[in-house]
Write a structure and sequence with these properties.
- The protein has helices at about 15-20, 25-40, 45-55, 60-70, 70-85, 95-110, 115-130, 135-165, 170-195, 195-200, 205-220, 225-250, 255-270, 280-295, 305-330.
- It has one domain.
- The chain contains 15 helices and no strands.
- Mean pLDDT is about 85; it is low at about 1-10.
- It is mainly alpha-helical.
- About 40% of the residues are buried.
- Helix 4 (about 60-70) crosses helix 15, helix 5 packs across helix 6 (about 95-110) and helix 8 packs across helix 12.
């Protein structure tokens, strides 16, 4: 039977300020800016031409990229509430509060590598709602697994449709990485379920309680799966729409399949633990995939300057914009106090 006690077992404090200034984070930003420097100086991109392209940005269309991206957060909050209800949390916070916490977690991901935001999200909910931290983390892990499976399925299907089964090497590598992550996740869940009795017997009492709650949070979360699946597909589609409007603001016509593929490929790279939210690697990948699409005849008029301009506008929405708005919300939010 699932445990119903909602005792908060979160860490005493997670300080974003301390995380930002620690050695690992500083190194990750150094790596990110080194990658960006290489992209800007070693790939023969005309920066003056890039500046001219950016000056021609259609602002109303570009604002739609901001709008469609930030509208994903209420959907993420709604999805998380469904997961919490599945995991038998009594009266979880409303979607509004969960949206705020989720937004703050994405903000945390812009400051530190290795998806610190997921840990921070569980910490904030545990501190503000007095719920079990490990069980909350179980719902977050389940959410990440569902999102990854949907991501792999969408990228794979779009690749086969868009490239007729003859996949370029970079696309095959992206698919291979995502497939490996899915396989590792599935095996991890099966092993966790298969040895749960053994693990519970050998763990010390304190760790046993933590493990049982984490396990409950993961396995109970998969109820109401069709609704979770639909929300996840919609969120990923809106990620693609963000890139579509960023490209259209530069008068670049990307077809929907190519747009969604590039956006989802970039989203996959945000999971890399080396830099905050994949900073440096994501920009480079967007440029590479746009240039590849141009060379394959999927996009007309593609140049290096145009590809870089699209990447910069897209990341201004979902990284630098998130860093700015997240700082404002972090300062004003009662949940961080």
């Amino acid at each position: 039977m699932p445990l119903t006690t909602q005792q908060s077992e979160a860490p005493a404090e997670i300080s974003l300020g301390r995380r930002l200034l620690n050695f690992q984070t500083l190194i990750s930003f150094a790596v990110a800016f080194a990658v960006l420097y290489f992209l800007l100086t070693k790939v023969d991109i005309d920066l003056q031409q890039t500046a001219m392209v950016l000056r021609g940005t259609n602002l109303p269309l570009y604002l739609l990229a901001f709008l469609v991206y930030y509208l994903t957060f209420p959907l993420r909050g709604w999805r998380w509430r469904i997961l919490l209800l599945n995991a038998q949390f009594d009266d979880p916070p409303p979607v509004r509060d969960l949206t705020e916490i989720t937004f703050l977690s994405y903000f945390a991901n812009t400051l530190a590598p290795a998806k610190l935001g997921d840990l921070y999200r569980g910490y904030l909910l545990g501190r503000n709602a007095g719920v079990s931290f490990p069980k909350t983390m179980g719902t977050i892990l389940a959410e990440r697994f569902i999102a990854l499976v949907v991501l792999f399925a969408l990228v794979g299907a779009i690749s086969l449709v868009g490239f007729g089964g003859q996949l370029p090497e970079i696309i095959s590598q992206i698919l291979g990485v995502s497939f490996l992550l899915v396989v590792v996740g599935v095996i991890g869940l099966l092993v966790m379920k298969g040895v749960r009795g053994f693990v519970r017997n050998i763990l010390p009492t304190r760790l046993k309680s933590f493990y049982i709650r984490l396990e409950e949070g993961i396995f109970l979360s998969f109820q109401r799966f069709p609704l979770l699946l639909a929300l996840t597909v919609l969120i990923w589609a809106m990620e693609g729409a963000r890139l579509f409007f960023a490209a259209r603001s530069l008068n670049l016509a990307l077809d929907p399949l190519t747009t969604v593929f590039i956006a989802l490929g970039a989203a996959l790279l945000t999971t890399l633990p080396f830099t905050p939210a994949g900073l440096g690697f994501v920009e480079s990948a967007i440029v590479a995939m746009l240039l590849l699409a141009g060379s394959l005849g999927l996009v007309r008029g593609m140049t290096k300057s145009l590809a870089l301009s699209v990447a910069l506008l897209d990341r201004l929405v979902c990284y630098w914009g998130l860093l700015f708005f997240g700082t404002v919300v972090y300062i004003l939010s009662k949940k961080t106090k």
